[in-house]
Amino acid sequence: MVQRPMSVTVISIIGFGLAALGAVGITYSLLQMGMDSNPFLAELAKDHRYVLFTEINSAIGALMTVFLLVASLGSYGLRKWGRKAMLAYAWVVVAHVLIQVPITMFYVMPQIMQPAIARAIANTPPGPQADGLRIGANLIQYFGVCGSFFGLVYPICVLVFFSKAPVVEAFNGIAAALPSNPYGSVHYGPPPLPPLG
User: Fold this and answer.
1) 187 domain-assigned
2) Most exposed: 50, 108, 141, 166, by fewest CB within 10 Å?
3) Is there a domain that residue 133 lies in?
4) Average pLDDT, consecutive stretches of 10 residues, N- to C-terminus, the chain (197 residues)
5) Half-sphere exposure (CA, 13 Å, Cβ side) for 153?
6) Residue 119 phi/psi, 5° resolution?
7) The pTM is what?
8) Domain span holding position 157
9) Domain count, the chain
């Protein structure tokens, strides 16, 4: 009988959790779009480019959430397609982050977010509220970029552990060999009785 490697168990369970969190996060962000009382977020919601960017990312996120859930189920059951699906998920996430981050840093932030911050501050009376708005808006931007890179940790773990020989063998139905005893056979229990006569 093939025993599921511990790394497969852990990564599959984490996949279940990330899929659940992803579903909650996407649902919340879509429900809150255009309804936020934060002046900066309210200004962003007025920009059709940002709304389109958010909707595209939400659609990709929703598809990847469903894909991760299915892949995690297959992986937990040691299905061959489960390993392939997890590897495909990991590569797609890596590619998505490497494409999304430059777009965010060199287009969305300077062309959409910074003007939205300026408009929001212009409509806010000078004082602590305006300063807090400026700090909060900048934190939203930079934490968003840092969060994207942090999101690479899980797919990289999938790529590393799901490429190891024992994991590949487990998915192929090959049971791990028991370690050999270099000291020969070991007798457990009471000593054998001496021969009669």
Assistant:
1) no
2) 166
3) yes
4) 89 95 80 64 80 86 93 94 96 93 84 78 75 74 77 94 94 68 49 59
5) 6
6) -65, -40
7) 0.76
8) 6-171
9) 1
